[in-house]
Design goal:
Number of domains: 2
Order of helices and strands: HHHHEEHEEE
Distance between the termini: 90 Å
Structural class: alpha+beta
Radius of gyration: 30 Å
Largest sheet: 3 strands, antiparallel
Strand order of the largest sheet: 1-2-5
Number of helices: 5
Length: 128
């Protein structure tokens, strides 16, 4: 004859998980004190953690500064200096086109590349 599978209430599972969360407490000892298999308690803890993670929001609210102050803080020209072994590459770009700058410059560990057809001014100065 096959044994019937036991079921446990949510409040009991929560109590066992809370006991396991106590400092200096072994999950195996908590399981033994309740006549449970330690693997079952580990599963309850894992499922509980997944449910709590799903309940958390993925976004953190951020208060943005007024857009007027942001525009006033921007300089008229963006200037980027990239030093490398043969000198320095200086990139000057109008601040009002800041987003297009990202599409024009590619910096990688191997080198520095640009697309020069959009008004990008490059200055290469060699330091001695």
């Amino acid at each position: 004859m096959q044994q019937e599978r036991r079921s446990y209430s949510k409040s009991f599972k929560t109590q066992v998980i809370a006991e396991c969360a106590q400092a200096d407490t072994s999950i195996a000892n908590v399981a033994l004190s309740h006549n449970l298999n330690a693997n079952l308690v580990h599963k309850w803890i894992r499922v509980h953690a997944q449910k709590n993670l799903a309940l958390q929001t993925a976004f953190i609210p951020v208060k943005a500064a007024p857009s007027i102050a942001t525009h006033q803080a921007l300089p008229a020209t963006i200037r980027i200096e990239v030093p490398y072994s043969k000198g320095v590459v200086v990139v000057s770009w109008p601040a009002e086109n800041a987003y297009s700058l990202l599409a024009q410059i590619e910096i990688s560990p191997v080198g520095f590349g640009t697309v020069v057809d959009s008004g990008l001014t490059l200055e290469n100065r060699i330091r001695r």
